[in-house]
Amino acid sequence: MKKATAGPAAPESGGAGRRVVVTGLGAVTAAGWGVGPLNDWLQTGRTAIGPFTRIDHHLQRTHVAGEVPPPPAGQARLFARWRRYSNTDRFALFAAVEAAAAARLPASLHDRASGVFFGSSTGGLFESEQFYSQLVGHSTDVANRSFLASHHLSAPAEAVARQFGVSGPVETLSSACASAGLAIEQALRSVRSGEVDIAFAGGADCLALTTYSGFNALRAMDAQPCRPFRADRQGMSLGEGGAVLVLEDLEHALARGVTPLAEVLGAGSTCDATHMTAPHEAGQFAAEAMRSAIADAGLTAGDIGYINAHATGTPLNDAAEYAAMRLVFGERTSDVPVEATKSVLGHLLGAAGAVEAVVTVLGLMHRVVHPTAGDGPCDPATPLTLVSGRPRAVPDLRYAISSSLGFGGANAAVLLGRWMPT
Amino acid sequence: MNVLHRVVITGLGVVAGPDCGTEALGNSLGAATMKTVVVDDRQGYHVPGSSRRAVLTTGVDLSAWVPPAVARRMSPPSRLAVAATQMALVQSGLAGAVGGLSTGVVLSSSLGPVTSTEQLLDVARRDGPQAVSPFAFAESVANAAAGQVAIFTKAQGPNLTIVQREAGSLTAVGRGAALIASGQVDRVLAGTVDEMPPLLHALIGRFDALAKPDETGAEIARPFDARRNGFVVAEGSVVVVLEREDLARGRGARILGRIRGFAGAFDATAPRLGWGGGSAALAGALDRMLKSAGCRASDVTRIVSGASGAVAGDRIEADVLKAVWAGAPLPTILVPKAYVGQYGGGFLAGAVLSVSGGSFGKTPGFESADPALGIQPFAGGPLTPAPLSLFTTIGSGGSASWLLVESA
Questions:
Q1: Looking at B123-171, which runs of residues are DSSP E strands?
Q2: Which residue in the list A57, A252, A280, A310 is annotated as catalytic?
Q3: Is the pLDDT assigned to residue A19 strictly greater than 90?
Q4: Could you tell me if A251 and A271 lie in one domain?
């Protein structure tokens, strides 16, 4: 079996190199453990955001989140050292194992050219907060250092790599809410260039006191479940979970007898370079990331039939994102169906781009655009085609774009295509 | 492999502990003394009897690089990274001349911005979550430094923050070079940043990773030495300017080195908090990287090792190198972490400086080689430019990264 190779300038661009397909999906979200529960929930048009117990929030301004439910009974027995992992690690591991099973990958990839490219903005922060609480609330003797064993932001990716015996590059991108989008881009370029044949691309993050307090401090959170692009939107809702896509060289997948689920056609990334938390008002660089992804795929904006928007629900973000869409899609902006996955699951931060890519692949597979939760009117300042109530069939759907925008001005866009054998 | 452009290093910015600038760092490397200070333990985070020393940036004046009014709104890692970037741009002759979509930023951080998170949690605990500062939260994210570097330089190309523990700094440079080589951007500000507040120092100490006080009370990293018992941590930031070679030569830039190859790999036998025993697989990955770059181990004229004094970490580093060289004598081995400590970029800066020569004193802390490793680090003296250097680092948790750099 071929092992990972590298060179001075491994990745290529401009659509050159190998075709990269998605052969497996995995997800852990507020909808449940697995892609099945997620897909079922997406059909309902309801939000999974609601009351939660992960952290004590009685002194916070807001009291809802997209919390992952307890794992299925017996889950711990399926994974070695399950109880010793952080919540974030568990989300990552479950999603990766589910994706690998869907891709019919062997249990060990030690003799394959494989890698892991993950996004995370919290890592084991939830558990580290418990350590800190013990440390300052009690004493250095009481504080249990096992809480810190998965503190690193790279821990989820490393847990996945250990699970499968991955021997190629294992890299974690931590660019806030754009992390997983950037990780998918890195994975695409790694497979495309021949550095690896198989890549786990995804992300995982867990609700934590730091993030919940921080977004409330920014006055960015809505007291109700978030309502992206709606006229009455008041802000975002946090979520948690993990999602993984198995990206694979097309020839490698076909040689294994695996039918791809979708194709990763392009990716692009930029930086606003204007403000740490506020987006560029005119959306210029978010637009440039989308344009780069479209060019990378060798397509035009007119080819895109479905936009899975970043769509946090904050007044500023949604307005800036709409402006970016206008720059890319022009007059078509109001006609292309838009999905705001965060209205259903909340904002998964460093994992958001991964779960939204999974949702986008599901849409391409079933030729639908899932409903955005909520039923209020669209903001007249951002007149978009939001699907409400139930999925909208789009029989000729071929290409979709998923955007992620983060603190620090990071923008990422991933262009996915329905699998078409010819 | 479709490499469109060759990539060179044209600038190096350094805040490595108290050493601000390449000249200060060069002097420290020549003097071969690690500039440790005692870490403030008044907050009571440290376990009694634990290690106390680190290489810190305390007292370093960055005002020439980051205006104080701006610096006040930044976390320590953001300040350090912006300062290192400014220095690198001045050295490259590009100060004020970068930015736009053709400039990317790729930084790594092993440990993230701890001070901001600690402040946020402290306020939330003491005064309630509604008292939390939005500023502290915005600066608590791992990519705060990369975001601030972009804001400061108007770099609007790809902006990546890579977290890969000790392997991250070389990966940042390698992936940054890839962005240029593939034609996505013309230049990249690549590097690493880490801070070392008392809380973090104490936590690392809890895992028995730090060099233990010896009979004189000194805490000394002793990479490859028989008596090594841990590493000494550091803080700082190091940034290099990577450029398309044709553009750099076209503007008459001084070339500090050319990126010849890069690879990352993972040792799946490594535990979460330590190093594993998968040297054979890592050696295979390094061997393939050399072949992919069109060279053999015998072509490498200098190794710059990321060995830190960690017992298991140095062992696997030695095993990998010996396996790749397959019994042939190893070239000169520099070990920058013996001079500047673990984290904060001193390793990367020392490695880049060594490509074009300079002077390294006798490897600090090294007295007798661990017979199980058989590695003899540099004995000190002037260095000639190295035609081909291998930078190598294997991080705790399993990630490894290698960079091949040619002298210009």
A1: 159-163
A2: A310
A3: yes
A4: no
Amino acid at A384: L
pLDDT tier at A139 (50, 70, 90 boundaries)?
A: low
pLDDT in tens, A177-209: 999 999 999 999 999 999 999 999 999 999 999
Question: Shortest Cα distance from A173 to chain B (angstroms)?
Answer: 5
Residue A121 has pLDDT above 50, yes or no: yes
B45's tokens: 């985070």
For the question of residue A347 being annotated catalytic, the response is yes
Average pLDDT, chain A: 94
Q: Are residues A123 and A172 in the same domain?
A: yes
Pairing of strands A198-205, A114-119: parallel
- ipTM of the prediction greater than 0.95, yes or no: yes
Quick one: tokens of B338?
Answer: 């013996």
Mark yes or no for CB contact B130/A152 under 8 Å: no
CA B259 to chain centre: 16
Same domain for A349 and A328:
yes
Could you give the CA distance from residue A411 to residue A413 in angstroms, rounded to a whole number? 7
- Beta-carbon neighbour count of residue B38 at 10 Å? 10
Report which DSSP code applies to A110. Answer: T
Taking an 8 Å cut-off on Cβ atoms, the answer to whether A409 and B207 are in contact is no
Task: Report the number of distinct structural domains present in chain A.
Answer: 2
User: Confidence class of residue A11 from pLDDT cuts 50, 70 and 90?
Assistant: very low
pLDDT reading at A3 higher than 80: no
Task: Please state, in angstroms and rounded to a whole number, the distance separating the CA atoms of residues B353 and B345.
Answer: 12
d(CA B400, CA B321): 13
Longest dimension (CA), chain A: 65
- Indicate if A28 and A163 belong to the same structural domain: yes
A63-94 pLDDT, tens digit per residue, is 999 999 999 988 888 888 888 899 999 999 99
Task: Find the closest chain A residue to B406 by CA distance.
Answer: A8
Same-domain status, A239 and A276: no
Distance of CA B15 to the CA centre of its chain: 11
Q: How far away is chain A from the Cα of B115, in angstroms, using its nearest Cα?
A: 13
- Please check whether residue A216 lies inside any domain of the structure: yes
Asked whether residue A10 is domain-assigned, the answer is no
Angle at A214 between CA B159 and CA A53, to 5 degrees: 120
A200 contacts in chain B (CB < 8 Å): none
- What's the CA gap between B183 and B19, in Å, rounded? 35
| Cα dist from B88 to A417, B30, B107, B191, whole Å | 41, 21, 14, 10
* Domain extent for A317: 266-418
Q: How many CB atoms lie within 10 A of CB B336?
A: 29
Q: CB within 8 A of A80, min separation 6: which ones?
A: none
Query: Cα torsion for B90, B94, B97, B100, to the nearest 10°?
Result: -110
Task: Tell me, yes or no, whether A408 lies in a domain.
Answer: yes
Q: State the CATH number of the domain containing residue A383.
A: 3.40.47.10
From B165's Cα to the closest Cα of chain A, the distance in A is 7
Cβ–Cβ gap B154/A59 under 8 Å: no
CA distance B134 to A277: 10
Burial class (CB within 10 angstroms; exposed 0-12, middle 13-18, buried 19+) of B280: exposed
Nearest-Cα distance to chain A for B162, in Å, is 5
Cβ of A165 within 8 Å of Cβ of B268? The answer is yes
> Residue written as tokens 């418990």?
A130
Catalytic residue among A57, A252, A280, A347: A347
Distances (CA, A) of B29 to A76, A338, B219, B342, B404: 50, 57, 18, 15, 21
Amino acid at A7: G
Report if residue A6 sits inside a domain. no
Pick A153's closest partner by Cβ from B3, B142, B148. B142
Both A211 and A99 in one domain: the answer is yes
Which chain B residue lies closest to A150 (C-alpha atoms)? B272
* DSSP helix/strand/coil, A297: coil
- Closest B-chain CA to A152: B111
